[in-house]
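User: When convenient, might I ask for sequence and structure tokens for a protein?

AI:
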Amino acid sequence: MNDKHLIELIDVSKDYSGDVALEHVNLYIKDGEFLTLLGPSGCGKTTMLRLIAGFIQPTAGRIEMDGVDIANVPPYKRRINTVFQKYALFPHLNVFDNIAFGLKIRKMDKKTIEEKVNAMLELVNLRGYGKRSVDQLSGGQQQRVAIARALVNEPQVLLLDEPLGALDLKLRKEMQVELKRMQQRLGITFIYVTHDQEEALTMSDTIVVLKDGEIQQIGTPTDIYNEPKNPFVADFIGESNIIPGIMLQDYRVRINGLTYECVDAGFKRNVEVDVVVRPEDIDIVPPEAARIRGVVQSVVFMGVHYEVDVDCGGYEWIIHTTDYVAVGETVGIDIPPDAIHVMKKTRSMNIFDGIAYPADGLVTIDGTDFPAAVPAAFSEKDEVLVQIAPKDVVLLAPQDEDAQLTGYVKACMFLGTHYEVTVDCGENDWIAFSDDFMEDGAETGLRVAREAVTVSAQA
């Protein structure tokens, strides 16, 4: 890998009939880099891949390759090939002819085709399989044929759209090693799409974490895991204890009423922050030797460690340890300074644009009326700012007659004492707190009491 910027996305946006898939994305991809686009379903990663391939065009912005705008270059003229999750092999052709298909279209001579295909079979560890029908191959072998068919055309860039998603766990792990080996041997640029965090951490030089069409963080696997920029990244990449805190001063943070030394600086004094502590960075110690004590609620053996939930007076810590502890046992918890990662506080309030109806005691948000104490200073249909604390948003069954609006769960993150639930309600996302975990995509109703709605003038 070198420092040359092979592909650049410059302020790229893409929407489908008003539905935003990518929003003002800026990204460069180095020549010879293994870059992974990582995020949940619907985050925009496949849209970005299709834009680079040329299958779709951006709504705004530029996509450059080798410094040249490729917006009007059709896919077949770009030195870019794509491997999909569905291998799309030709069932009537054997392995050799599947790999040779693109070369024959380019009318290469028979000897050159044979040399190139045999080299690809060697690369993907399928030497001697050329005459086999693709129906005789395992899923992992079929995926290797699909990769060989893409690579035999000598692209500058190989795009891989969740190519291992259909494989079982053992095959997937084997193919992760194979793909990284191929990329290093060939030295070409791989752009890989996945929602699997382990895949991304295992194979990538660089990871781009996406959410709702926006880049959340770009970095090496080590940076992404150890230095997440926000709670979403921390929660999405591995398990985390995410705790609200107060940054008292440089290198000192208060969590759950206790002050801890940490390694972070550059925050304002006494500012609200989010704190991340990875489960494997917490030590279980004798209760008498610890500032924090708790009772073990559950113990699950994970193969190489135990996952232990400890209730410390209403706040639950998740701990990974190789030492067994029993459910009901009182233990101490020790958190060293370098285990504490402090982040800027993310959105902690529902803030919406609204329309005031003081005569009726209502405020309208995206077409839904909410009872509210609208100050007398406002006139009918004035534009106002509406604030609602997440703790005041009540989640109900979607068919509940008390539900004022409904939406779908986009994210659910445990914050030690409760879950923070993000609900897509069409125009706006709402944040609510819940005692129970909610699955992504689950439909839910929302209700807000009159006294929980604060109405003020827009800035």
